[in-house]
Amino acid sequence: MSSTKGRYLVLFAQDLIEFRYPELDSIVKLFNLNIKVPRSEPIEKPFIILENVDESAVRKIASRSVSIRFIAELWTSGKNYEEFHTNARNYVKFIDEKYKSQSFKFVVETFNKHLKLPQRIEKIETMVYLDQAFGEIDLINPVNRFVYFEYHGLKKNEPELQDIFLGKHIADGQRDLINKISLKDRKFIGNTSMEATLSLLMANQGLCKENEIMFDPFVGTGSLLVSAAYFKSYVIGSDIDFLTLHAKSKPVRAWQKIRDSDESVRANLEQYNLQDRYLDVFIGDFSNCPLSEKFIVDSIVCDPPYGVREAISKVENKERRLKYTAMTEDAIHYPSLSTYRIYDLYDDLLQFSVKHLKMSGRLVLWLPHAEKTYDTSIFPQHTALRLVSHSRQQMLGETLRILLTYEKISEEGQVIAREKSTADDGNDFRTKYMTQTEQEVLDRKEQRRARYLKNMEEAEKRGKKIYSRAEWRKMMNKQRYEDKK
């Protein structure tokens, strides 16, 4: 492994674009690396170049990132084919002699332009002048992989060559983990189980690492625990929902009528051989938390309920109850629950985090909001917490959710009050999500009608027979009648 500093090409995956840089910044902090991550302009650009960085640092970044496809040591580049090949020929004399005795393969990557296999081979053959610098070709198990990458801009219908890069592949990102812990194969899942990509991103932004403790106060089926445990954190969680935590809720898989007897959060971790990282889960309301004040964790990573698929509730204060019943030794206590305004929940969560996080510990959470009224002023704030990053993910309709990452900067502080209009807007999220205006309904009907007419027109052009719904039903009924004969 080279200890000299160099230039490295970082190629990103093309999903969750807003989450790239918060994740990279978090990984740099996690490993205490002296690297300033540059921002691409525009943000949709699929790569960045790290300057004056050593190989061990980029390997550490790749060992955690799910936003990165791969990192390559950048050898040479060009803005067009002529410039690239001129620079590549001049670079041959600087290639290390050791590569002459080592097997290799070339990988051709492109962005915004698809190349078929013959075209990829043609690209490789144009670099015949590199043969003198490398050993034998081995497409199965090469010692070295070299990357040729073409960037054709961001205009999908008008690709234009802008950059060509050549370098040595150093490391892949952790994209394979997404399939490895996919919800499709997970033992125990629910309606709100966090999908693998996002849960891994959250674990990275929470700085989850070996021998530290991560806590999820809305643990549900434990998706966030799985990701944190994969990064070797010890995990613990709580949830107010008795049925979910005990796997008594209705199954969400269409083929499953009842839950298996061995479904549990622990079973999820055992499925991935992570049971040694599992501390426990318990039923509890974090706003009336049974945890000792001395219970301190390194990170709190969670997905609070929004009131849409999961109700927002908390244990009712006993002082509010008007009627008391006699308790016997064998009596089972079912605590009364009361409704919980969404921004009250977030204020309590921030206060809880200040109380139970270590200094510089991180709180990572999701905040839902209507897209039309999105503004950073809606973010919950606390004087003892610093907002590190925020990234948006589009949801159904005109709603979105924001991943917020906070860092504890003080042992004491208080929630910063929001303006009434802002708080009311957030507390009304469920109503906004579930309610559609009459005009929105009409607009959607018009859009569906326009698509239907366009499809009819295109079908007629192809000479396809078009039936009205009434004609189709009549034809199907006739067919079923004849089949019965």
Short description:
The protein is of the alpha/beta class.
Report on the structure:
The chain has 485 residues and is α/β, with parallel strands linked by helices. The protein has 3 domains: 170 residues, VC0802-like; 246 residues, Vaccinia Virus protein VP39 (Rossmann fold, 3-Layer(aba) Sandwich), CATH 3.40.50; 47 residues. The protein is 29% helix and 24% strand. The protein has 14 helices and 17 strands. The strands form 4 sheets. The protein has a 7-stranded mixed sheet with strand order 9-8-7-10-13-16-15. A hairpin with a 4-residue loop joins strand 15 and strand 16. Helix 6 packs across helix 7. The longest helix has 24 residues. It is globular, with a radius of gyration of 28 Å.
How is the secondary structure organized here?
Blueprint: E1 5-12, H1 20-30, E2 47-54, H2 55-62, E3 68-78, H3 81-91, E4 104-111, H4 117-125, E5 144-151, E6 163-172, H5 176-180, H6 196-205, E7 213-216, H7 223-230, E8 234-239, H8 242-245, H9 265-271, E9 278-283, E10 297-301, E11 313-315, E12 337-339, H10 342-356, E13 357-370, E14 381-382, E15 385-394, E16 399-408, E17 415-416, H11 420-427, H12 429-434, H13 438-461, H14 469-484
Keywords: Cytoplasm, Methyltransferase, RNA-binding, S-adenosyl-L-methionine, Transferase, tRNA processing, tRNA-binding
Organism: Polypedilum nubifer
InterPro entries: DNA_methylase_N6_adenine_CS (IPR002052), RlmKL-like_Mtase (IPR000241), SAM-dependent_MTases_sf (IPR029063), TRMT11 (IPR016691), TRMT11_N (IPR059073)
